[in-house]
Design brief:
Helix content is 46%, strand content 17%. By secondary structure, it is an alpha/beta fold. The protein is elongated, with a radius of gyration of 24 Å.
């Protein structure tokens, strides 16, 4: 099918369209490096939709403009990221194809008018992101263009109800309506769509505010996380030099739980190290979550939850492995570890696992209201990974304790707020913080993404069905 755009755009816009599309892509991707700039994604999307409206072309020019935007976005997203070159190449190509397909659909949606067009655009983005993350499951929701909004949890009360996809839907729909407002042609017929946009934004916000206001209060607990740079592992005697002293200090500060990083015990010393931690846990009355490498007959990346009585309460094998960097004989079944900690239900998974919303959702389904994540990061991924991790407590109504080698060790509340953290690329650190642990899960843990996926599919189907009819008076000209 041939897609064309009709334009009354200024000549300078037509001539500089590629540069403007590149700027839109960069504006959409750069907030990952500077999360405080996340709201800039809205005008970046408005610019992209507007360019697709005012710049003339058929098929190839439209795809070229969309590819330029997608390339700018992809470059911004992988800037400074240290991953294998093939993985970066796949991410870059995937992002470019994603926005090429989105630009192609956007040009069709301009025929629908601002009301149905905005809904179809929001629905398309939700479904396209879901497909992108499941067909190419490299880093889960870390591939989402709304990743950088996780520090804004206090202003996004709808996330515990509908998760990240609702933000995708709202950004897509509302930016589309804004682009319609600034497009060439008469402004008649925009009053109802603009009123609709206010309602569209207000409903999920209001639902989230009402749910939070009626939520029962949580329980305050003091927890500890410990992390270190990779170089610390080379010193040997990691248990006696670092882990046992960290447990002593955590206990002294009143913490009842301590989380240690992924594979902090390795090189044939895991069994002895675990025995030492069990003894210290029983002596101090501490619950311990520790990651360790099983280098026996069949290798595995494991974690163990040690109860305050010194006995193993639960164990887990890592399920989601980093592409091209990890390969073990055993792989987990996707069910996080779960154990009781004095009335609080712990959920536990390892590093890359928390990039995938379904993993934390399963932990919440098991009753977890505190998620613990031993992690092994490195400079070049640790900031992005931590941004993504902060979505999981917001979605599922739980607190988060993350302990990292070469990354951020932090205690995070149910709104994604960081109560205490240390960048452990700079040196070993113990972080102790008091956090309110919600005692009731969020509605999202009941239904996940499915309600919004169904709504998105319905509005997209309605839009595509309308496009099959002869164009009528609802086209913006």
């Amino acid at each position: 099918m041939t897609i064309t755009t009709e334009t009354d755009g200024p000549a300078w816009v037509v001539k500089g369209a590629s540069l403007l599309a590149l700027a839109a892509g960069l504006g959409l991707g750069l907030p990952v490096l500077l999360p405080s700039a996340a709201p800039l994604q809205f005008p970046a999307l408005v610019l992209f939709w507007w360019l697709l409206r005012v710049v003339p072309g058929e098929n190839l020019p439209i795809l070229k403009l969309s590819a330029t935007m997608g390339l700018g976005y992809g470059i911004a997203r992988i800037m400074g990221v240290m991953l294998p070159i093939p993985v970066l190449a796949v991410l870059l190509v995937g992002a470019t194809l994603f926005w090429m397909a989105t630009g192609w659909m956007a040009c069709r949606f301009w025929r629908l008018g601002p009301g149905l067009g905005s809904l179809a655009m929001g629905g398309w983005l939700v479904l396209a992101e879901w497909v992108f993350q499941h067909v190419l499951p490299l880093f889960g929701s870390g591939q989402s263009f709304v990743l950088s909004w996780s520090p804004w949890g206090h202003w996004l009360p709808f996330v515990p109800l509908f998760g990240m996809p609702m933000l995708v839907f709202l950004l897509g729909s509302l930016s589309w309506l804004a682009a319609a407002l600034f497009s060439p042609g008469p402004r008649t017929g925009l009053v109802k769509p603009l009123a609709f946009s206010v309602l569209l934004a207000a409903l999920p916000f209001a639902a989230g505010v009402v749910w939070k206001a009626g939520r029962p209060p949580g329980e305050s607990r003091k927890i500890a996380v410990w992390g270190c740079p990779v170089e610390t592992l080379k010193g040997g005697k990691i248990v006696t030099s670092h882990l046992l002293p960290a447990m002593e200090e955590a206990s002294r500060q009143g913490a009842g739980l301590i989380v240690f990083p992924e594979m902090i015990l390795q090189n044939g010393r895991s069994s002895k190290g675990l025995e030492q931690l069990r003894g210290a846990a029983a002596r101090l009355g501490l619950t311990v979550v520790v990651g360790w490498f099983d280098d026996g007959m069949k290798t595995a990346n494991r974690l163990t939850i040690i109860g305050s009585d010194g006995k193993d309460a639960a164990s887990y094998i890592k399920t989601n492995l980093v592409p091209l960097l990890e390969a073990y004989d055993l792989r987990g079944d996707g069910v996080p570890a779960s154990a009781d900690w004095k009335g609080v239900r712990l959920g536990a998974m390892i590093c890359q696992d928390d990039n995938f919303p379904a993993m934390a959702w399963r932990a919440a389904s098991l009753g977890a209201n505190l998620l613990t994540v031993p992690t092994f990061d490195w400079p070049g991924v640790h900031h992005t990974h931590f941004l993504n991790s902060r979505w999981r407590p917001q979605e599922n109504g739980m607190a988060l304790a993350k302990a990292a080698i070469g990354g951020h060790s932090a205690v995070v509340d149910a709104e994604g707020g960081v109560l205490a953290s240390r960048d452990c690329t700079l040196g070993p650190a113990l972080v102790v913080a008091e956090v309110v642990i919600p005692l009731s899960p969020s509605p999202y843990h009941l239904w996940g993404d499915w309600p919004l996926l169904a709504v998105s599919a319905a509005v997209l189907a309605a839009g595509l069905a309308r496009l099959r009819r002869p164009p009528g008076g609802d086209i913006i000209r």
